[in-house]
């Protein structure tokens, strides 16, 4: 029985079925709390705990799902190409907004953690929270943070952005595809970009662009900003 529960078939089917049912549930009740990503992650965690299955086994058994990450990135690239002329026309504005947004995100979380009495290593680990996982881990490692803590906060920020991002932007009157896409891509990386993909190719394109540009800006400037803030505060 244990071998069956710990098999690729069970893990892949569980993940896909829960996600598909969650999508149907969200579509029917229109609640941001019924986010398919949040529900699927929660169910999988409970399943692993209940069946005493290690995450390493689950990750190995669901590589067939992870494989599609690369094609999905290529799909975002195609969407970007479709809106290349619009991107070129507003390129300076987009770059400046991404620079401002990235630096604000790093400084705000760093200072918030400092005001709440967090340690230096915790503040460093939190700084790259809004970028995609590989970049966040490398920035955290380079600056002496705790990569596992960084991973946890990257996931939390992504899930929260996917759940509440669109609702918040709508409440403050931001509905333009460029603004919504860039905002969620820059603050909630892939999960934020994925949460708006069904609204149209323009949302997907600018979501992917926001994710990519924020990753580049953070990788370049985060170490310098962190060093400056540490010198300033200590």
Please explain how this structure is put together.
The chain is mainly alpha-helical and 234 residues long. The chain has 2 domains: 1-67, no CATH class; 84-233, no CATH class. Helices cover 82% and strands 0% of the residues. It has 13 helices and no strands. The protein has helices spanning 2-5, 8-29, 36-50, 55-61, 63-66, 69-82, 84-89, 91-115, 120-126, 133-143, 147-171, 177-195, 201-233. α8 crosses α12. The radius of gyration is 19 Å and the shape is globular. The termini are far apart. The mean pLDDT is 87.
Quick summary:
It contains 13 helices and no strands.
Helical run tally: 13
What is the overall silhouette? globular
N- to C-terminal distance = 56 Å
**Strand/helix succession:** HHHHHHHHHHHHH
The level of helicity is over 70%
Q: Give the strand content.
A: under 5%
Low-confidence stretches: none
Layout of helices and strands:
Blueprint: H1 2-5, H2 8-29, H3 36-50, H4 55-61, H5 63-66, H6 69-82, H7 84-89, H8 91-115, H9 120-126, H10 133-143, H11 147-171, H12 177-195, H13 201-233
Offer a few descriptive terms:
mainly alpha, 82% helix, globular
